[in-house]
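hi support,

uploading two proteins for the ticket. first:
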Amino acid sequence: SEDVEENVMTTHIAENNDIAVSEPEEVVDGKIADFNLFTIERRVEKNELGTEKVVIGNISIGVTELIPRTGCTHVSFEIASYLNDKNCDVSVVMFDTNSFNSTADYLGCSITNKSFKYSGIEFYCSEGYWEAQGQHKITIMDFGVQNNENISLYEKCQIKLMMCDFSYWNAEVIERYITSDNIAYSKDVFYLFNLMGNERFQNKIKEPLTRYGFKVFRLEQSSSCMNSCAFNDNVYSFILGEIVAEKKEAPVKKGFFGKRT
């Protein structure tokens, strides 16, 4: 199977890295269906400095997308299930009210005090945001499509995930995001490419973007959002490894006089 660790890119690259840039191979309807490497190169030169990371509550994981139905909610649930299986105290905040109500109805759960519980995980609507932050160690923020109303919260999340669709007709959307001068934290984001073949991912995503310090992963289809496949679990393990490791550390017991027992 593919080595997930090889999909993680270094966060810093040499300023004078000699990179051969070739012409894009695919053009669809007159538009480039591959990343514009020239544009990315200019973008990197303007943004080599990192940005301050702000933690909301304890640990906040922001999941968003630029195009509807890219898998934002599905992956939010998968990550919650993964962390729950690791005995982490995790909750999910769903910022789309219709999706929150529909999910509760589909799962047969009753909504009480802005939330419902399923399979050991507490799910909150957007109005229950502060309750989720105050009562759980880890909060997964299912923002859905990124907009002006939720972007400020997303920017404050300690861990930022971006669901990506690299279909030929949508490739330009993620390219504009990565190369935008307004996204100072673009290298802090984990870009998850959903339901994409490995060969195309390696050639069109990993190979060009790893040169510039972007963190990219590929996800595979799972049977259920509450039971992700082993491949996706390996991806989540790599991204969230420190969280799970921290949870596994047992506290040292001490006696009345401060001595270990």
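and the second one:
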Amino acid sequence: ETFFSKPSGNIKANIRCGIKKPEQKLCHYDVMSGTIIVRRAAAFSYRLNTQQLLDSLHECLKEFPYFCGRLKQYEDHWSLDGNDAGLSLSIVQHDSAMPAYGYQHTMKKQMRGLCEPLAFSSGNKDKGLMGIRITHYKDGTVIGISNSHVLMDGTGAWQFLQRWAEHYRNELKPAHFTQDRSPLLFLGDDIQQATPSPYYSSIRISKLALAAFFARCIASFATGKTTVLHLPAATIANAKQQINDVLPEGQWVSTQDVAM
């Protein structure tokens, strides 16, 4: 754990937050979506300070202790164990200039190289659920994150990055972190709010309500309709251009935003 005092060159290490938390039993939806490994990356057009990144990450992880945990599999359920076994982090140094990531220059093809490799954990194995890769170029920095979807979805990922940025700038704001689980909203009054936490939102669902929810999902497959929208590339490009023409310099709209 001397990693934080030696941020030079290409480095790979296991990072712990120093806080252990009790196991959290996962619901069926968490387990199903947890089989997905997702990758996200944020590019900065200037070099970030390595030591400041590491110090702020260490403080940020204290608010997200389960990111350093492991999956546990039991006969009748899965749990997320906040045992602080750690997450993998690497620092990569490049002598070249950073590609002009941003509008009209996607990092999609380079995403795997910009994010830390992460293997899906099938439970009861000492495999991390999250990996972070910091890539420094001569004139910029890219932070890539790989994580099991059981830890967080898109909403949670950007909340984590925003909180890390606040620690980096030493400009902390009141925060309440959640994980968006939109299918659970259909359970309505069957959801009971569990003990509130300053950092996490959790819920309790009766087995009967959960069974009824999945039964409705399965039944809808037979009667439901699938609508396919055809959005030609030219249509998307034209819409993006019109929006980007009126946005301030340095801001742009993504293809996904236009499609949605």
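thanks. also noticed: The beta strands are 11-15, 21-25, 37-44, 70-73, 78-82, 87-93, 130-136, 141-148, 191-193, 203-205.
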